[in-house]
Design brief:
Number of strands: 5
CATH topology: Peptide Deformylase
Distance between the termini: 35 Å
Strand order of the largest sheet: 1-2-3-4-5
Strand content: 25-35%
CATH architecture: Alpha-Beta Complex
Radius of gyration: 16 Å
Number of domains: 1
Shape: globular
Bound molecules: zinc ion
Number of helices: 3
CATH superfamily: Peptide deformylase
Structural class: alpha+beta
Amino acid sequence: MSLLTILTYPEPILRKRARPVETIDGNIEKLVEDMADTMYAAPGIGLAAPQVGESLRIITVDVTEEREGLIVLINPEIISWEGECAGEEGCLSIPDFKEVIPRKKKVVIRGLDISGKEMKIPAEGILAISFQHEIDHLDGMVIIDRISGLKRDLFKKKLKKKIAQQQL
Ligand code: ZN
């Protein structure tokens, strides 16, 4: 088991569109294993590869209370959606920040599992939100991109202050 370092905003890789995985080889398998370990240790309900410094389209998600429902998706995409919802979200890459984020209520996700098999997963509730949150990371987006400009300015001001304090 190895734990990876979770990068935090404003790390530039979090702003980059991640590239698709072309071949699922040993390196990808190892990365996925480490991502799952890192997600569980955090603890978090989802993690995207750019958050651990790999600009690749891979996500791990587990929204179960028992922590036995790991879903790994490679090159995931949302193929259909329905309805609207909004709930409070946090992000492992933006510590100490929570905000209500508008999302699609139901989504169907398509992607590959670790053996390269195509998966199609209908999701709603926290699972649907988690998929949307992690896929945003693959597109270089974080939750602060989905809040109002006013709230975003406030967040950035606070962050600047925090960074300035850390440099003292
Ligand atoms: Zn996140």
